[in-house]
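The authors assume throughout that readers already know how a fold can be written as C-alpha cells. What matters is that the chain and its backbone geometry are given together, residue for residue. A single example would do more here than another paragraph of explanation. For illustration, here is how one protein appears when written out as sequence plus C-alpha cells.
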Amino acid sequence: MSYRRAGGGFIGDNCSISMRVTIYTASHNVDDDKFGYYEKSTVINDGVWLGVGAVVLAGSEIEDGCVIAAGAVCTPKKYERKCIYAGVPAIKIRERNINEIENLKHDMVFR
C-alpha cells in the first residue's frame, strides 16, 4: 500500500487494504495555469475493502462497509455506506446484501 499523508486522513477499524492500493491526500489543480498544489483529507471509514490496485484520490470519503473493486479510482466525493463501487471513475454498482455493520469496530472480519 502506498499512502501519501500530506493532507491528513483517516483509516477506520477492520479495513482490508489489498496490494498496490494507493491513497492520496494531496494533488494539483488542473484549472490553475501553474497546477497549484493542494491538500485535502481522505477518509476511509470502518469495514471498507479496497481491492487490488484501487486508487483513492485526495478528498474522497468512503463510508462504512463499502467495497471498492480492484483497479477502481475513487474521485473526490462521498461514497455511500454498504455499497459496491467499480470503474474509472468509480461508480455505484449496487448495495451490499448485509444487514448490519455496526459491530465492525469490535469483531475481526478480515484475516
Remarks:
- The chain has a mean pLDDT of 89.
- DSSP finds no helices and 15 strands in the chain.
- Residues 15 and 94 are 20 Å apart (CA to CA).
- The first strand starts at residue 2 and ends at 3.
